[in-house]
Amino acid sequence: MEIHQKRMPLEGEERFSSGCAISGLFNKNGDRFSGRDAITSISVMHDRSNGLGGGFAGYGIYPEYKDFYAFHIFYYGNEAKRNCEEYLDEHFDLINLSKIPTQKHHNITDEPLIWRYFVTPLPTKLVNSQLDEKEYTARCVIHINTDIKGAYVFSSGKNMGVFKAVGYPEDVGEFYRLDDYKGYSWTVHGRYPTNTPGWWGGAHPFALLDYSVVHNGEISSYDANRRFIEMYGYNCTLQTDTEVITYMIDYLHRRQGLNFEEVAHVIAAPFWSTIGRKSEEEIAEYTYLRNTFASMLITGPFSIILGFNGGLMALNDRLKLRSLVAAEKGDMVYLASEEAAIRIIEPNPDRVWHPSGGKPVIVTLNK
Amino acid sequence: MKRVYVNEQWCLGCHLCEYYCAYANSGQESMVKALKDKTIRARIKVEEKDGISFAVNCRHCTEPLCVKSCIAGALTQKDGLIVIDQDKCVGCFSCIMACPYGALMPNEEGVMQKCELCTTNSHMLPVCVSGCPNKAIVFEER
Amino acid sequence: MGINYLYPDFEVHRDKDKCINCRVCERQCANEVHAFDKELNRMIADDSKCVNCHRCVSLCPTHALKIVKTDHHFKENANWKGEVIQDIYRQAESGGVLLASMGTPKDYPVYWDKMLINASQVTNPSIDPLREPMETRTFLGQKSTKIKRDDQGRLITTTTPQLSLNIPIMFSAMSYGSISYNAHKSLAMAAQELGIFYNTGEGGLHEDFYQYGKNTIVQVASGRFGVHPGYLNAGAAIEIKMGQGAKPGIGGHLPGSKIGEDISKTRMIPEHADAISPAPHHDIYSIEDLRQLVFALKEATAYTKPIIVKVAAVHNISAIASGIARSGADIIAIDGFRGGTGAAPARTRDNVGIPIELALASVDSRLRQEGIRNNVSLVVGGSIRSSADVIKAIALGADAIYVATSALLALGCHLCRTCQNGKCNWGIATQKPELVKRLNPEVGSQRLVNLITAWEHEIKEMMGGMGINSIEALRGNRLMLRGIGLNETELQILGISHAGQ
Ligand code: SF4
Ligand code: SF4
Ligand code: SF4
Ligand code: SF4
Q1: Is C65 in the pocket of ligand 3 (CB under 6 A)?
Q2: Bridging pattern class, strands C377-381 and A185-193
Q3: Most buried among A165, A344, C213, C454, using CB within 10 Å?
Q4: What is the extent of the structural domain holding B87?
């Protein structure tokens, strides 16, 4: 109660809603390009953000460290850094660590300490934990974010990285000097929260391991999803849609072994009436997925772009209550909330289409 | 043609059908005004014996004996419905003798009356049926 | 007669200006309250016999009748209330246990009425159920914990047996015996039409009703009445009744007077002998024994039917539910203490057990803490009175709800709470043929269908308001609820915030 009067609650202390802009760029050939296009694309949708959060995820940006988990961490204070590094030391081999290079920007203020670590689990700890490498790493990340005060791991995948801050996304891109990174896949997010939490960790993309999610919308199933996924060791500390969606995708894809198509059939399941018109085999499969993972259905408006190693998936809610446009030009695939955000970087796409609600667009690197 | 049929299995012997009928054909607006302190003359009659009961009204027979027996031409068949022209009725009781169901009876003035399926009063649909609490009589095509 | 300590509770008021002496009231009152006095040429009434069931009131064609609570009273006393004094007179007279029926009428908090539902504004759109699909289909049963694929990588889609409901509402257990043949038939017909389930209760299944098997849950209670292999296999699921909300710790009791030929055949017991279920199952003194019965029933039905374990909501319900969830049961049914009964000791009904809202919230939370919520489905009952209660129950975490009292009300019950007398004027809680006849199943089932369909519309409307278009996204979605006038502890147990937070 008192908190209310003293200051606005932070992300995670209360649930905020937000509208947003998202964009995704992908080269099927694996050719790498800088973060500039992503910055340009999102800047067109300036009005869809309100300067309270922006961020990027790039894939293929750390080829020289591709076998190591790249942790990007915010620290609020040196004590947090000490505690976290102590923890990291106990659980991982630290291959490399450094400050993430940034460039002062007049619109980006109050920055925390921002560090990057390339790590690999300590073999003995890993064996003793009886977990696989990814699960071990994920649990460590969740532990830091839940239990080490002032430390927040906002990126933890291999050969990928998330860059985010409070500010307009184009300014965030400049701040992190994304011209200097090259990836085959970029996603970007501009945020329009209806409240002013102003915490860097609350900006998007949200990421766990190599999954990163940018999302536009406000899901009505949030608490059903959250209470379900928290049964499986996740802790939704931020209380944001993106966080819970990322965890569900992690659970369904990595831990249950569903493919992305099947994941889409769970979280944006077709209506029963649609399922009823399918072949017997499909009916059995769709019904099985809807029944088994019923509590992971997402309702309410959303469009998301999921980044993962080697691909992107875009998905709309079943009613398509949020805009999402896709386009193709040669090896490039573009996804965005607005067509203009695509045309600014590719004025003449070969094909432009509006994916229908609940139907995933999945693109992966050519073999 | 839709007729009133009996499901005696569900008849409770409550006699409500009789009271609704008497009221419907009274021309009065309130049931109290129509029936208070009166002996009712309903066109439907509940028969009861040994715990079994059912309500009988005119069957609107396809070969109506009453019409044949009427000496004054007061009873006629109109689109399957058996109607009475009370102005023509001379009160001879021939129809009463002829009807195997006892569906005709004299009114207060000694002129015959019978069920005309509420087509001639202001109710349009049989009120005995709508007033029955247990669907023991139904109005339907069979 | 001696001294009569009890003054009649009700007065029958007849408006002499309206009464037309049709004698419908007289014919319809099985308690013989009304009579026609030839000399006076008017109706008279014996108030002392009236149980306030409103049969006469509902059928009087001129609305000449009303039943009024007597204003005769004892000297004001906040401690020794009139009903308390009367109970003592009754027991001093009879020397017996006070019997009662239906749910407790005492003024306990109804938490449903202290929770408010959310709706979307601006940041996310509400959905119009008339224009967009709105889904209420629900599956009950264990969910697989890990997907499996065949050698070609296709998902293996076989599951343990599941119940599929068009809408997550079921008719809960009411035995043939405690309610009439026609009441049972009405429930069965309605369940079939609605694509949901009704429950036989502990009295076996009448042979006429085997045809509704696909929509039937057959119950196995401590008395094992009417249980045989054919019965177990006749339904879509089997429910083990460990307890009932209205009388936790007590078995069912059907007086011999209600056990005529048909019921004796269905229950497989002698005619006119009291059917008294033992308080516990004598083969279940502990949780591992329950597991044995669960699997015995699964064996008996070749693992084709989900097994429901029904328990009364009592103090340590979450630990009990957690045990049941690990017993191999597919579904847990929890019955709250406001639930109804055909007959129960009044003191038990009014004092034993806890409200279903709290039981549900703590069980759902506990099963999630233990990570086993998906291993069982949760069905709750015990006074679900409206579609809003259904929504709140599902948002707290229930998969489906059970209604019984609401269903009986739809059939005509007026909650006069004298079921134990066996003279139900509405043809529900009686076995007297002339009274049973008053409930025409065609009428009854239609009224049940109407009620559930109406609730379904309302549920969809409110789901749409919340921006939710499928019921599973509401399940356990406690953010959709806010408490009003609740204290910290209550809010914490319910797992919800206060309105305004
Ligand atoms: S109203 Fe219906 S139940 Fe009552 S006597 Fe007439 S037919 Fe029978
Ligand atoms: S249909 Fe009308 S006139 Fe005929 S018996 Fe019924 S109430 Fe009387
Ligand atoms: S017991 Fe019921 S039917 Fe009889 S007088 Fe009382 S309210 Fe009327
Ligand atoms: S039912 Fe009504 S009108 Fe008929 S006798 Fe009773 S009180 Fe009078």
Answers
A1: no
A2: unpaired
A3: A165
A4: 60-114
What length does chain B have?
Answer: 142
Which member of C21, C61, C438 has the closest CB to residue B20? Answer: C61
Residue closest via CA to ligand 3's atom 8 equals C56
Q: What is the pTM of this model?
A: 0.92
Catalogue all structural domains in chain C, each as residue range(s) with its CATH number: 10-96 (3.30.70.20), 172-476 (3.20.20.70)
Which residues of chain A neighbour C132 with C-beta distances below 8 Å? 319
Touch between chain B and chain A: 3 or more Cβ pairs under 8 Å: no
Question: So what's the ipTM on this one?
Answer: 0.92
Q: What one-character-per-residue DSSP string does C453-470 give? A: HHHHHHHHHHHHHTT--B
> Are B3 and B52 contained in the same domain?
yes
Residue with tokens 């699960």: A135
By alpha-carbon position, which residue is closest to atom 2 of ligand 2? Answer: B118
Nearest to C139 among A15, A222, A291 (CB): A291
Q: Are residues B12 and B29 in the same domain?
A: yes
CATH of the domain at B70: 3.30.70.20
Inter-chain touch C438–B12, beta carbons under 8 Å: yes
Report yes or no: C269 and C288 within 8 Å, Cβ to Cβ: no
A84 in active site = no
* Ligand 4 near C64 CB (within 6 A): yes
- Domain of A85, CATH number, reads 3.60.20.10
> What does each of the 367 residues of chain A score in pLDDT, given as a tens digit?
333 334 445 555 555 555 578 899 999 999 999 998 888 888 877 766 666 788 999 999 999 999 999 999 999 999 999 999 999 999 999 999 999 999 988 888 888 999 999 999 999 999 999 999 999 999 999 999 999 999 999 999 999 999 999 888 889 999 999 999 999 999 999 876 655 456 788 888 999 999 999 988 889 999 999 999 999 989 888 888 889 999 999 999 999 999 999 999 999 999 999 999 999 999 999 999 999 999 999 998 889 999 999 999 999 998 888 889 999 999 999 999 888 889 888 899 999 999 988 899 999 999 7
The enclosing H or E element of C43 equals strand C42-45
Please state, in angstroms and rounded to a whole number, the distance separating the CA atoms of residues A222 and A217.
11
Measuring from atom 4 of ligand 2, which residue has the nearest CA? B115
Residues B98 and B133 in one domain: no
- Cα–Cα distance for residue pair B114/B101, rounded to 1 Å: 12
